[in-house]
Amino acid sequence: MLYQDTSRNVDVAMQRLASLSEVCSIGSSEGSPSRHPLPQYAERVAVVGAGPAGLSASIQLVGLGYTVTLIEELPVLGGMMAVGIPDFRLAHLRLKECIETLHHPCLKIQCNTRLGRDLPFTALRHNHAAILLAIGLQRSQFLDVSGESVLRGVFPALTFLKEYHLNGRTRLQGDVIVIGGGIATIDVARVALHAGATSVRVCYPGLLADIVDVHAARQEGVVFLEQVLPVGLLGSEDVTVYGMHCVRVHSFGRDSFGRHCLARVPGSDFKLHTDIVIDAFGECADFSGCLDDASLNRMMLIAYPDTLDTNLQGVFAAGDVTGGYRSIQSALEQGQRAAISIHNYLRLHTMPSFL
Fold first, then answer.
1. Could you tell me if 155 and 273 lie in one domain?
2. Antiparallel, parallel or unpaired: β 199-204 and 175-180
3. Which terminal CB of the chain, N or C, has fewer other CB atoms within 10 Å?
4. Do 11 and 86 have their domain in common?
5. Where in this chain does the record put each FAD/NAD(P)-binding domain (predicted)?
6. Are residues 208 and 308 in the same domain?
7. pLDDT at residue 127 in the model
8. How crowded is the C-beta side of 8, counted as CA atoms within 13 Å?
9. Are residues 150 and 278 in the same domain?
């Protein structure tokens, strides 16, 4: 998931993660035992996803006395903090320093492991007393315009950012248009420029907020086309994108979800040339392969906001996968809350139901 934090919020969140990571440095070596020894419980807990929610939950659970298996699909810890937020908004060296402190005999880390593909969900449930799903929003949503799914040169923002951060040789050539909105869209546009794009334009259906990230992007050369909505992509005979069909829109209020209600301006159609389109329209959860048991696949996973437990016994959820405002800070807080809920579940689940 692409976080909607401003640069200031990212700094605050990193300070919090640094203070949390100190928990694992206490008692991680024989020469530095904890001044306040905690009980060591027999139950093992699995945390799936090593983004901010998964990291904070794992640290909290280790501090409470549990052995934790932290499972991450990417080759690095940090989730989208590591591969989604660029260096100019998050000091990756600082993130690396925080992660390097996560050495503790009760914390087992498995990278390059996807739940379902590499590790069956049923096996995970069998071997752990509780599971926390902190997988984030890893599947890109599309604007659903003509040509989006068939033309070459159209990339989801998540795919582009992962490739850029994990493969330093990723380069772009030609003109780029980014479609979407929010801080994450600005990140994608700036990274595209850093990756070698000749020009970068952002088609944004609303009006941009007057924030430092927008000013920084403009100073670097990003062009923002406000109140512009893409309605179709133009492709050549060899099925390669070469342009975009757009219309101008205006807002006439908000719906029940707080989203802008947009109306097209009559006769405002126009076309833009582009060599590459990056779709930063949004993301959703990807549970494909996770719930591998046939009976579970037919169920909808429901996370209860007060306790973060789900309709599957012993399974909890935290972070962006539960909905709500997408920020590193809120994900860190939810991870800690989920850890406390798991602790209460494991210590009290044999007690009478009225407690």
1. yes
2. parallel
3. C
4. yes
5. 44-335
6. no
7. 94
8. 2
9. yes
Q: How far apart, in Å, are the Cα atoms of 2 and each of 86, 97, 206, 307, 314?
A: 11, 22, 19, 25, 28
pLDDT for res 355: 29
Q: Give the model's confidence band at 267: pLDDT under 50 very low, under 70 low, under 90 confident, else very high.
A: very high
Alpha-carbon gap, residue 279 to 150, rounded angstroms:
14
Name the phi and psi angles at 139, rounded to 5.
-115, 125
Q: How far is 339 from 346, CA to CA, in rounded Å?
A: 11
CB 20 within 8 Å of CB 155: no
Nearest residue to 132 (alpha-carbon basis) of 76, 79, 70: 70
Point out the domain boundary residue: 260, 283, 306.
Answer: 283
Dihedral in degrees, nearest 10, Cα atoms 187, 189, 191, 196: -170
Instruction: Tell me the pairing of strands 199-204 and 282-284.
Output: unpaired
Lowest mean pLDDT among 24-28, 131-135, 222-226: 24-28
Same domain, residue pair 46 and 160: no
Q: Are strands 228-235 and 44-48 parallel, antiparallel or unpaired?
A: unpaired
Whether 354 is in a domain gets the answer no
pLDDT in tens, 172-193: 999 999 998 777 888 899 999 9
Provide the number of structural domains found in the chain. Answer: 2
